[in-house]
Amino acid sequence: MKANIVTRFAPSPTGLLHAGNYRTAVFSYLFARQNGGKFILRIEDTDRERSKPEYEANILESLAWLGLDFDEKYRQSENAPVHREYLEKMIASGHAYISKETPVKEGDRSEVIRFKNPNKVVTFSDLIRGEISFDTTELKDFVIAKSLDEPVFHLAVVVDDFTEGMTHIIRGEDHISNTPRQILIQEAIGAPRPIYAHLPLVLAPDRSKLSKRKGALALTEYRDRGYLPQTLLNFMAMLGWNPGTEEEVFTLDQLIEKFDLAKVQKSGAIFNDEKLLWYNREHLKKLSLSELTNIATERIPDLAQLNSNQLKILVPVIFERLSTLAELDEMREGGEWDYLFTAPAVSKELLGETKYLAETIALLENISADKFVPEKIKDAIWDFATEKGRKEVLWPMRVALTGKEKSPDPFTVAAILGKEETKTRLLAKLD
């Protein structure tokens, strides 16, 4: 593959883009980085009425969150003088002409600029779909600008791709029908033809095209719902591509290494929320204890009161069954870990029979404070609990420590609380 590869992501800032849209950015980025090339961001803001600064800001925020760094950034509207220059050249050379129109309805133009169609068959090779041919006769003389200062999509895109040095155009298959028009314009202005790769559409579970109305969310909404950026990156990379092995969980560096446009499928890729959640759990498992601790203490600030030994025990327990980081917010709001800092009020009904509590305390006394860890606590109590009945021994111990019907096992809780606090809470519940 050439070393001077240049790809682009060219979104329109006319609304919040959903995760399916960003799949194009992911594929373009991976291909460029894999080949030591450039990845360009171009904001296509020529729709002046619908383009909004907040949508552009969200695009930048989303790419930064994913970790997709771009080498150059352009705003299509800033290239307007170059668009006009090429329109003038095309009119002068006879490739385009000013067309007098009969307005059909109020607001229609009485004059536009049309491309002089040579009415020929255009054939191009697509990296995913192979050779594709179009008879352009049916396109007639199509409009390329409303005026010299108002190019339409096809003209602006071709000029921008040419002047920005694009070598590969990686985009959705819904753009296939645009390609013959754009090739004709390329030939008219003397631009080299880029290599095309049209990706399969991202589909909703009912196999319709993914859209916001079909439940697709803006990328930053997934962030706010507690998904990791590496989750979305990995998930989107697998929408329409796989490495040809059973592997599914990849870091960005691994994706750059393994990605292959030739292995992109032709059929649509289903956006499956359950699979996305699975990816999030898998990527949470790959985080280090230090990373998990930072996340936990950031989302539940009270946990920062605990020392490193306590957090070392607690954090894996917190994340054991976690699917999204938003569940940490629910824990904080529900006061799930408040008992670690304040002895809970415990009802006698929930506590139940405490006849073995004194013997439990005596067994715990045999463990030194510095050895008061879950394994040692369990070893000290397990045989006794097995003999007398695990529920009869362990239930009142756990409830006395947490005040909750559901919580981590009593060995883990006791280790986090420490020997003295554990004894104090258990002694307080003796009959």
UniProtKB/TrEMBL annotation:
Chief localisation class: cytoplasm
Pfam short name (any one): Anticodon_2
Family matches, as Gene3D superfamilies: 1.10.10.350, HUPs (3.40.50.620)
UniProt catalytic activity: tRNA(Glu) + L-glutamate + ATP = L-glutamyl-tRNA(Glu) + AMP + diphosphate
Any one cellular-component term (Gene Ontology): cytosol
Position of sequence motif 'HIGH' region: 11-21
EC number assigned by the record: 6.1.1.17
Record: residues binding ATP: 212
UniProt-annotated location(s): Cytoplasm
Family recorded in the similarity comment: Belongs to the class-I aminoacyl-tRNA synthetase family. Glutamate--tRNA ligase type 1 subfamily.
Name this polypeptide is given: Glutamate--tRNA ligase
